[in-house]
Amino acid sequence: MKPYIIIMSLFCLIPVVSAQTEIISVQDLEQQRKQAVEDIERTTELLKETNASAKNSLNRLNLLSQQLMARKKNISLLRQELASVNKKIDNMSVEIDLLDKELTKTKENYAKSVSNQFQEYRTTQHKMLIIMSAEDIAQSYRRMRYLREYADWQKEEAKRITSKQNDLIVRKNEHENLRKEKQILFEQLENENKKLAAEEKEQKREVTEINKKKNNLQAQLQKKKKEADALNRRIDALIAEEIASSDKNLPPPPEATPPANTAATPSKSETAEAKSKETKAPALNRETFVMTESELKLSKDFANNKGLLPFPLAGKYTIVSSFGEHQHQELTYVRTNNNGIDIQTTAGTDARAIFKGVITRVFMMPGFNNNVIIRHGNYLTVYSNLSQVYVKAGDIVQTQQPIGKIFTDVEKGNETILHFQIWKERSKLNPESWVSGRY
């Protein structure tokens, strides 16, 4: 008897759809979109709390601009997520098609194995005849082993068919879930586009109203610029004083040994003038702090936390003015230069220290109410526009400790804005590069 050729189907190696990297990417998109939605919600709440008026129309426009930016970001992320889901649907459709074809082929091979020429060997009688008709014992043994292996193969093939059927059901369910997810994302995208159109319309209306009061607005901006310049000069002067006073940390100079023979003894006025030059020269030229060992450590700790420092307030907020010089997107005649950032929040919110340090100055300034400077080694943080102050010069504060209540201007529709700065000695830094933005 010629040996039978057993046809055994192999599983196709089907690539996993989208792999782990794509899964992580989709999760990242969802996380970013969640953050964008939170930004929109916070800005919307602040817009509701801020009444429209001539005095705060520019601020409302800034809030609207922030809301539009967050909305556009959300729409962009929705489109990316939708594209990713579409790709996964297409890939899974290919996978389902391959699985379906593989299952069909496996079933056909299995059907052939139990029909036609194999049919006669299914009964015990025919199996015995095959074994007994062998030419010798060795051949009988080989036939017995073949029949046993063939029966085992049939059982395994049946299991493979069942497994493939289950895999196909799972893939089809995943495919259907992706189609539902796609529909949800598409509806969200349409809804966001409608909201964006309404917000853009509102922004245009605000711009029209502001342009009607252009002269008044320019006068307000000029006044605000003078107040900001005065604040900057005051902060710089106070830091210079701090740097000068840090000379007390310098090691004492070695005692000079007077010469054995002196030609003449200097007068009292000459001695006083020499001492004055010795003490004043370092302070006038100094641009850096003379720090103690503990201050050096504090400065290093502050620097090591760049980008991780907590926000200078808790609760709802929106940054309405960023660091540096900016041309307003909607108003060509409005150009601002900010030494820090302006953060709008809700009435009653406290400003809080972003890192442990020492209160060095508490002072008043027109347009910025109460101001607090905290020193962290050779770094300084400035908290401006406080209605109440909870600390005094010399106090040691801890990270996230409340230092004062942010001023709420009822004449400007309950506008509550914290002006926040970060300095390294006498150089201004961008606070957004240092704080985490989370609360």
Unreliable spans? 1-24, 276-284
Biggest β-sheet description = 11 strands, antiparallel
What is the H/E order? HHHHHHHEEEEEEEEEEEEE
Count of separate DSSP helical elements: 7
Structural class: alpha+beta
Mean pLDDT equals 77
Strands, count: 13
Shape: elongated
Distance between the termini: 82 Å
Our estimate of the beta-strand percent is 15-25%
Proportion of residues in helical segments? 40-55%
Oligomer: single chain
**Radius of gyration, Cα only, in angstroms?**
39 Å
Q: Can you give a write-up of this model?
A:
The protein is built from seven helices and 13 strands. 54% of the residues lie in helices and 16% in strands. The N and C termini lie far apart (82 Å). The longest helix is centred in the middle third of the chain and has 76 residues, at 137-212. The strands form two sheets. Strands 1, 4, 5, 6, 7, 8, 9, 10, 11, 12 and 13 form an eleven-stranded antiparallel β-sheet that branches. Strands 2-3 form a two-stranded antiparallel sheet.
In short:
By secondary structure, the chain is an alpha+beta fold. The chain contains 7 helices and 13 strands. Strands 1, 4, 5, 6, 7, 8, 9, 10, 11, 12 and 13 form an 11-stranded antiparallel sheet that branches. A two-stranded antiparallel ribbon has the order 2-3.
